[in-house]
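FIELD: query
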Amino acid sequence: MSTFLLVVFFAWLIVAALEGWIPNVLIGIDCTASAMCGGKPGETLSGRAGSAYLEHKLTGRIFCPIIDVVMHLVGEYPHWRGHCVAAIHGDELRAKAVLVQRV
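FIELD: result
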């Protein structure tokens, strides 16, 4: 019985570590790709597309609907529209969280 509990405990530790690690790494890759394409530090591709969309730029009108649909299909956003515009807020929240941790 104690071996079973030990296995369950270690499995729980691994899952807890991966749940926090994987999303952070994916956001890091996203921000790196955005920076390589000329974006601001800490800005995701979705946030850039959302900003361009709100500014009525051609890049926003092209990439925002595509990213919105893809994010809906993979289950990351509940609606067909709005992920990119909502991502702007997420980028701002992450930037504020970093600043709070530095103080």
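FIELD: remark
Residues 30-102 form one domain.
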